[in-house]
User: What shape does this take?
Amino acid sequence: APTTRSADVTKWYTGPELAQQLGISQQRIGQLRRAGRLPGAIERGGHWFYPVEAVRDYNRLRHKPGRVPKK
Assistant: This one.
């Protein structure tokens, strides 16, 4: 997992882990990252890592207040 001076390795998900947490495919994770909807993603050694906040941020963006989800 990525290491920076202020980042704890337990605070990052791999692409497959994030996909499982969000209940979406790994391909969708890549689409969201490229669209800028998963901020904070970093690449290390050819692999992408996502901060744990990505789950909260994704869910918040997905369900905006006042917006009725499509059925």
Remarks:
- The longest strand covers residues 47-51.
- The beta strands are 12-14, 42-44, 47-51.
